[in-house]
Amino acid sequence: MKIVFHERFYVSNYSMDPAASPGRLESIMNIIHSKPEDYEIITPEPATEKDILRAHGKRHYEYIKNDQLLYELAALAAGGSILAAEEGFKGNPTFAVIRPPGHHASADSCWGFCFFNNISISLLKLYSEKKIKSAFVLDFDLHTGDGNINILKNRNDEFIAKILNPSSSGSANYIKEVEAYMQNLKDIDIFVASAGFDQGIEDWGHLLHPEDYTKLGSLMKEYSEKLCSGRRYALLEGGYNHDVLGKNADAFCQGFK
């Protein structure tokens, strides 16, 4: 499967938050590089102003642009999300190892280590090109992606987003909740995951094991194949224990690919 990555994402001094900490992306990419038979790395370009303004207001855009390094990396992450979406639309399952993450960024505000909403920017790019009219977003990050909801569920156009932030306690019930939701989906053009790994059993959430992430990936594969010819992609959000982040991301990808 394809992995979206750029060497500039290793830069960690754009912010002082845990998502920007040194070594975080290395924990994922070291495993990716060790499995060339499984993964093909592709390199993104930055999102354009036009791309970003489909999801964000001009004032918020200018606020982020005032910080040169932050803007460079946030625009590159948004561009990585667009590349992942384009590949996913072609039927190539793709995981974007990007930062900053995005699911807490709303149209005119942001918090939670996020600056631009990568999920929304990528989906609205496809929608603007008349490739999709609907999407299913599985946000399995520990924290609800309020930015995804605020941008994608409050629209005055015809784009439709179904968003699930699972809330069940216990890993078995969590997986059942996800599958039950997917079983009721219809008329979906593409699947995308806000793939945060801070629900991991050895991360902040203390809930999901590596095999649970594999199951989430396989459910995304199974139901995207049933509903939209396998069109699917995923974007990195949270995940902060560097010792297990790579293992969890790889476990997800093994089911997702």
Word description of this protein:
The structure is a single chain. The protein is an alpha/beta fold and 257 residues long. The protein has a single domain (2-256), classed as Arginase, Chain A (3-Layer(aba) Sandwich), CATH 3.40.800. 43% of the residues lie in helices and 12% in strands. It has nine helices and seven strands, in the order βαβαααβαβαβαβαβα. Helix 7 (171-183) packs parallel to helix 8 (210-228) and helix 8 packs parallel to helix 9 (242-256). It is globular and about 45 Å long. The model has no long low-confidence stretch (mean pLDDT 98).
CATH fold group: Arginase, Chain A
Return residue spans where pLDDT drops below 50 for at least 5 consecutive residues.
Answer: none
What would you report as the Rg, rounded to the nearest angstrom? 16 Å
> Helicity, in percent?
40-55%
- CATH evolutionary superfamily: Histone deacetylase domain
The CATH architecture is 3-Layer(aba) Sandwich
The largest β sheet comes out as: 7 strands, parallel
Our estimate of the beta-strand percent is 5-15%
Whole-number mean pLDDT: 98
Shape: globular
* Structural class category: alpha/beta
The helix/strand order is: EHEHHHEHEHEHEHEH
Gist?
This protein is an alpha/beta fold and 257 residues long.
